[in-house]
Design goal:
Length: about 130
């Protein structure tokens, strides 16, 4: 099997991955994913698409993550892994789509508007 290259995005995070057959090593920015994502919740987010198609421990993944925070990066990585699994076999599409792992989450931070403290929050009103 050749190396599969895919991309995943979430908020401002971008995940570029290189996936090939191996024994389940996941490297993120040159570090082990358990070291990079200390939280157990974020580690399970990364494993979700592999667990759905029963492919845990069969592929080596080398990921380059950029931008955003750790949860956005984890979800971007999940999308990239789901897309890579689709390139391996189109039969995985139904299971991944049912779980919602093929949909790019469009929610982004709303921009700050002038005359406001944040995007929608107004400055405190003072009568006197």
């Amino acid at each position: 099997m050749e190396i599969i290259n895919t991309i995943g995005r979430r908020k401002t995070a971008v995940a570029r991955i290189y996936m090939q057959s191996g024994n389940g090593n996941i490297t993120v920015n040159g570090r082990d994913y358990k070291e990079y994502f200390a939280s157990e919740v974020l580690q399970t987010i990364i494993h979700q698409p592999l667990a759905v198609v029963n492919e845990l421990g069969k592929y080596d993944i080398k990921a380059n993550l950029d931008g955003g925070g750790v949860s956005g990066q984890a979800e971007a990585l999940r999308l990239a892994i789901s897309r890579a699994l689709l390139e391996i076999s189109a039969e995985y599409r139904a299971a991944l789509k049912k779980e919602g792992y093929l949909t790019r989450d469009p929610r982004m931070v709303e921009r700050k508007k002038y005359g406001r403290r944040k995007a929608r929050r107004r400055f405190q009103f003072s009568k006197r």
